[in-house]
């Protein structure tokens, strides 16, 4: 076998010199310091502007609270007297009688609505009792069986489930 005349160095692959990377070759601490100081400064300015710059009326509000509190304390002793005076006026008594008459007029309707609500609540309680007494897997299984059946079969399964549940609830099983 004849040896080639090429030198061995040409067979070794030479790595190219890496290019100068500015991120690796220079320090970024000065830029980070500048950005941090700018962020802290802008946060401080935002807090100052939020607390004092945009709300010059805060002092006026505090002054108003002091004055109005003093005013309310000064009229507190007369408050009960004025209410009693208003209740003694003929206008108030006329309005009070009209309100009582209107309440008497709708009392029967209110009682009828209350009875209707009580009936609905009794039905809701019965359904809730049926549902809450069964375990979740049993309800899920029955739901899957009903959902996967044909329309005629679905109606009959629903009726059977309701009858079975009602019978088990009331001890007729």
Task: Write structural notes for this entry.
The model has no long low-confidence stretch (mean pLDDT 79). The protein has helices at residues 22-25, 29-53, 58-88, 90-133, 136-147, 151-169. Helix content is 78%, strand content 0%. It has a domain at 28-88. With 173 residues, the protein is an all-alpha fold. The chain is flat. It starts with 21 loop residues before the first helix and ends with a helix.
Could you give the topology of this structure?
Layout: H1 22-25, H2 29-53, H3 58-88, H4 90-133, H5 136-147, H6 151-169
Helix pairs in contact: 5-6
Overall body shape:
flat
Overall helicity? over 70%
Low-confidence stretches: none
Largest sheet: none
Number of helices: 6
Number of strands: 0
Please tell me how large the radius of gyration is: 43 Å
Strand content: under 5%
Please report the distance between the alpha carbons of the first and last residues: 102 Å
Which secondary-structure class do the elements indicate?
mainly alpha
Give the SSE order as H and E letters.
Answer: HHHHHH
Task: Give the mean pLDDT.
Answer: 79
């Amino acid at each position: 076998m004849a040896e080639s005349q090429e030198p061995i160095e040409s067979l070794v692959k030479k790595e190219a010199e890496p290019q100068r990377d500015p991120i690796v070759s220079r320090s970024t601490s000065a830029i980070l310091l500048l950005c941090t100081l700018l962020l802290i400064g802008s946060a401080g300015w935002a807090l100052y502007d939020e607390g004092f710059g945009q709300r010059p009326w805060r002092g006026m509000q505090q002054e108003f609270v002091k004055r109005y509190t003093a005013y309310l304390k000064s009229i507190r002793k007369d408050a009960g007297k004025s209410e009693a005076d208003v209740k003694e006026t003929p206008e108030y008594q006329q309005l009070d009688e009209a309100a009582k008459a209107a309440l008497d007029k709708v009392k029967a309707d209110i009682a009828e609505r209350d009875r209707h609500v009580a009936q609905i609540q009794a039905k809701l309680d019965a359904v809730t009792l049926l549902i809450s007494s069964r375990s979740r897997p049993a309800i899920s299984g029955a739901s899957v069986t009903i959902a996967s059946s044909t329309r005629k079969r679905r109606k009959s399964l629903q009726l059977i489930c309701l009858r079975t549940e009602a019978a088990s609830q009331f001890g007729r099983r």
